[in-house]
Give the backbone structure.
Amino acid sequence: SAADKYVVGVSNTLIGNGWREEMICSIKAQAEASGIVSKVVVANRNGGPAEQIADLRNLISAGVNAIIVNPSDREALNPVIKQAATKGIVVVAVDQAVSAPEAYVLTNDQVAYGKVGATWLFEHLKGKGNVVEMRGIDGVPADADRHQGFTEALKNYPDIKVVASTFTGWALNKGAQQMKDLLASGKEIDGVWTSGIDSVVVDAFKTAQKSYVPVVGADNNGFVGQLINLKGDGFSGAAVTNPPSVGGAGLAVALDVLQKKDHPHLIKITPEVWDNTTDANLENLKKVYDAKLDPFYSIDFEVKPYTTYTMPQILACKGP
Amino acid sequence: MTAAPGKSRASERNGGASDASAPPEADQRPSIAARLHRFMRRNPALVGMPALLVLVLAVTILVHPEFGAFDLQSLALGALPLAMAAAAQTVVVLSGGIDLSIGSLMAVSNVLAASTMQHASYQEALLLAVLILIAGAVQGALNGLIVVLSRIPDVVVTLTTGFIWGGVALLILEKPGGGAPEGFLNLATGTLCTDWLCSAWVPNALILLVTSVLLVWLPVRRTRIGLLIYAIGSDRIAAFRSGVNVELTRILAYVFGGLFSAIGGLALTMTTGIGAPLAGTYYTLSGLAAIVIGGVSLTGGRGGMLGPVIAALLLTLIPTDLIYLDIDPNYGQVIQGTLIVLVVMIGGFAAFLQSRK
Amino acid sequence: MTEASSLLEIRDVGKRFGSVVALRAASLTVRAGEVHALMGANGAGKSTLVKILTGVFAADGGTVSLDGKAKAFRSPAEARRAGIVSVYQDPALVPDLTVAQNLRLARVSLPAVLDHLADLGVGHLDHASFIRDLPYPILRLIDLARALASDPKILVLDEITAALPADLSEKVFRVVHSWRERGRSVIFISHRMAEVSALCDRATVLRDGVTVGVTDPARGSEERIVSLMLGSEVVKASAEAHRAAEPSPRFAGVPALEVRGLRYGHRVNDVSFSIHPGEVLGVAALEGQGQDELFDCIAGVRRAEAGSILADGKPLRLRHPADAIRAGLVLVPANRIQALLPQRSIRENVALPMVRGIGAWGPIAMTAERRRVDEAVQRLRVDTRAESELRRLSGGNQQKVVIARWLASGFQTLLCFDPTRGIDIGTKRQIYALIRDLAAAGSAVLLFTSELPEIPLACDRTIVLFGGRIVAEMPASAADEATLLRAAHGLAARAEALA
Amino acid sequence: MSLPAKTGGQRSRFGLGGPGGILPFLRRNTILALILLLIAFVAGIEVARPGTVTPIWISNALLFAAPLGILGAGQTLVMLTGGIDLSVASVATGSAYLLATNASLGSVAAVLIGLGLGLGVGLLNGVGIAVLRVQPLVMTLGTGLMTEGVMVVYSQKMLASEPRVPEFIQALGAGKVLGAVPLDLFLWAPIAIAMIWGLRRTGFGRLTYAVGDNRQACELAGVRVWQVLLVDYVLCGFFAALAGLVLVGSTNAADLSLADVYLLPSVAAVIIGGTSILGGRGGYAGTIIGALILTVLTSLLTLLDAPEPIKQILYGAIILLLAAAYARLTD
Ligand SMILES: Nc1ncnc2c1ncn2[C@@H]1O[C@H](COP(=O)(O)OP(=O)(O)OP(=O)(O)O)[C@@H](O)[C@H]1O
Ligand SMILES: Nc1ncnc2c1ncn2[C@@H]1O[C@H](COP(=O)(O)OP(=O)(O)OP(=O)(O)O)[C@@H](O)[C@H]1O
Ligand SMILES: [Mg+2]
Ligand SMILES: [Mg+2]
């Protein structure tokens, strides 16, 4: 019956970003799959904490029962979250954490993201060589966390040298140009760690007619395709998972809490490293790769045990 | 014909004062209706914008009958930084310039405040706020100085100083953080509460918005400075030949731009409680949209402060309505873009019809 | 001419703008209590000298001394403080401010200005009106009144009468006289000989940026001044070109332009007339009698509310100047700045109508274009020293470019609104000769001029506008200044009504 | 009425040397001055990291400058009319995304759909600005938002559409012939020639300048100004879409923020190239050099081992100094 169905609000402050769109799709898909959500109200625009506070307040006003928020800051939203909680609204922060005790937090561990990828790279280089760190946007929390993880990993490998550290701004062309410039500058490069701008970096080696070096990227469909298809050309690399379906998972948690099921307030999703070095791993990659999908679609499309939707549901990207 | 013709007539007219700043309407008193008509014709934004605001508010209440004190506060909080960005841009544009570094200036004040106020007391925070306002004015002055001394078009100068101030913000605070004392935040996030009156219906953010615009702008508008700013915005050569120190006035406009940006940056600190080095980026362009919707001519010299401020409220209210109406937010962006275009198109069309008459 | 009695002493001032030398060695001595004419052909450097004197430009060399003390003003404000105020050739009023605000801007007192305005015949001005809404002649007078109100020792008037109708000019002269009576000095720039000889005590003549002589401009000395200004050969050429209209032939057949019952608001009221090919029809009127609107309507700039306009007997629907131009009606507008591209070259300005239609958006036939442009530019003798940017031309030369444009691209009927405004005497004669030539070649011309004496020289027939109506029509031979003036004041109409 | 160049002809406090010599020469040949600046930059890179400037590096620089240069072509046109187009980034992104997601319809159809978006948005801009006289800045800000929003809605419907970038677009965006000549030069060069020639030698080029210089004068001379503006904005949209195709060719895949980073540089390149933001003055040759200068500057900063804030500050300061030097030269 419609009476015991819930209205869910979503707040996101980065639009036109494939990962975030997929996150929203996963929320809609999970709402559909759960059968107990009557409506998903999305507040989606570009902005910072100030804009997000306004959106959250509007969602509260709109009478939602739960809010899934991808927070633009750890501290800034706390007062609104508290206000929501006093009105009985369940708030789940996904992807990035908030420090408000009222909120449930379900995040990808970004420090670990940086650390496991970097560790794979340094191991693969046998603890010695020149690497390039291609970061995201300076001043963004996720970038800072990943850098922290990268740096922690680096401490264990004294013979690894970071010869260049750039900010790609998570923009394809910027990353591509930077890699090409670095290659042209004659710097000795033995490996590259990227914060998600991965496939264009691999392409840069091809265009520059240099032989491939190991590259760490994200679980983007296109990059995984490269891991599979360029293996024969001597390309090795690893994709670190960072599932956008934390959105759907967050919704599942929120619905559970609304139905008085217990959940811990902090759930961390540990990233996995998928490399193409062994045949077994390559087989796994082939299983998740889908040539039909958008190259920037993250192919780690579920977070077990939370999400229950099917692939067609998330691809449809339609809420109730 | 006498040497100093008609001095006495002049004295009669103006009560003996030959004060150059006497109100222009002092002697000829057309009927109230005629003056009102003329005022409306001359300041279409002054009449149209409040009407539009009332209309949109009415629509909001229609689609969301529960609209209450909480929502009014949401509106004020959301509009405050944008309104300050618009105010900053207004002063500069009225003087015939443009400032594309406003977002970065706001970011600098925002991180300055958050990084210095973190462990400060309320009183210290207020003192720091004053210092940050001064710093904002100085940054504005630097923008203005470069514009005047380099003789590069202002768009270019402020586009590039925008990069520079953005870098400075990052230098001050590498990633979001910092803080400010509760009392200071309350200046924007609280609601009016004095010894004799406590009303949840009057958000502090709204008071802050109105007073900062009034306190800074009215003295400017009512004195010679305002006159100079409008004059150089309207025709720089004519103003120069009328004896205006054009270069100083241009710098002054940027100083006020910097001051309003700093208020905007402080507003960001108050509403979010933190500093974020990228916080201001959205405000450069949306501030520009607000001033154009608010009837300020981008060629300078025409417009006022009321229009842009109301436009900032409108631009804040529209996404809210989209949420109330439960419109797919992606269509929401289409709608917002369309609305901006429509508002100015209708304005353009009205002007077109007017010119036909 | 003793040094002691001179108030202002400018010596060998030079100024160049890039490759253009505006002034080589200009000198000017002004005594206390005199009206001193500054004369010279278009582009001789008059305005530049004024701007140097008042601190708009810095001179490259030479000296300026006031009361025997060397001065170099850095801004008009500084010059004003020293007692030198100029009314520049183009208005120095800020369009988006009101009259009162403009006065406040210049720190002059409103009542004083209003009184001066009353003396100038503008008693009813609403000082809360925006400058942008006021007609050009009024702006000139406000500019003048504002200058007077700051009570300068030396008042500089750069072609103030160029845009003024006869009655208002008259008022300006009276003000200048009274100024002199008070022992003040006036530097007066004008291309109108009659004004200069009536008004001025002495005249300094500039040619190509050099002072070529100081003379007494009394009546009868015109030719001498002209030859100083222009150099002797040019004078001969232009004097030849200047001939009065032959007795008007009878015009018959289909009129080139016919206007029937034209109305525009209450500015133009039921105006009808026609012009035949080969005919020059003069329009005489005081300021603001509807002549601007009349010309605009015929040129497609404004839409008439009633009435019809016919070209070659065919009724026209004019919704855009392009419609008028296609029908052969072209306009030389009152305000040249409206018609010009300040940052583009003379060539592009002249050739603008040639590329106006979509059909001409393709490649330009450069040689043919150059030939037509050069021909027109030479025919009008435009000073092309600063040809790469039109805004660097002197005022008069800019005016010539507007006319040259239509010579180059062709037309059937020329609507000329005060084409000799700000044009030197040599060129003026030449332009009237040109108009006669054009008529002789079969064009029709509708000519408004603010200089009534010119009408019998250039026109075949004249209509007089008053209050938006045609109040008189006469052959040019009968249109002497007095008759025209009387009609233009509406007196003829009243006389008729009485009769 | 105020002339577009508001300080034109006023007292200059910052006069330059006499008439003879190298400075006045450069002043008459500003493009040459820009080229010298560009060369100085390249030399700077070579000094900072010897051995960097090789034919490969130069060809990379050209490769990367091309999309910016093509965006700059449209931006030059509209800025010459006194306008600006802030929708170019959204249009470029949108055309790239449409191309990739419609590849299954065939390469030619996909390209046409991408370019169609550019023409469509350009037309919308043109109608608003030329006919309804909306301020260009706001109009294009609005249409940019609209385009982006539409693309986001569209992308959600297209998650499983098998996006693919046609081979020849990939070659266009990243390929080279004869070892070092980037293929996108074969698109950019004709555009450059057409732009430079068209602006100087065609009626439409003349009118583009004229409209930016004095709209009223154009009307009085019988020009239907709206037609000129309309075509300029449509062309600008078209060039933006073309640039999007080159971009997607170089990245092999489109995401919805593909061209965002090019928005401000597309304006900066035109301005550095000496086109007046107020309209009526400038040209495309300058924009080309402007695009190259910005590209080389980006490379320089990549190779410079400095923290990001410092790089940002340097980026701003260098462009500022460049513009100042240039302004001095041409003042
Ligand atoms: N757009 C606006 N926003 C806010 N205040 C405005 C705006 N326009 C005008 N005002 C204020 O409204 C009042 C009247 O404005 P107005 O421009 O009519 O005054 P004014 O300078 O005396 O000009 P006028 O001589 O035309 O009356 C002033 O206090 C002014 O500061
Ligand atoms: N700002 C400028 N830049 C370049 N050249 C200029 C500038 N101002 C004036 N000139 C040039 O200097 C010369 C003298 O111009 P000026 O305006 O002084 O002439 P004028 O005697 O006042 O002529 P007119 O009677 O036509 O007004 C002209 O050749 C003109 O082109
Ligand atoms: Mg002059
Ligand atoms: Mg007013």
Summary: Residues 228 and 282 of chain A are 7 Å apart (CA to CA).
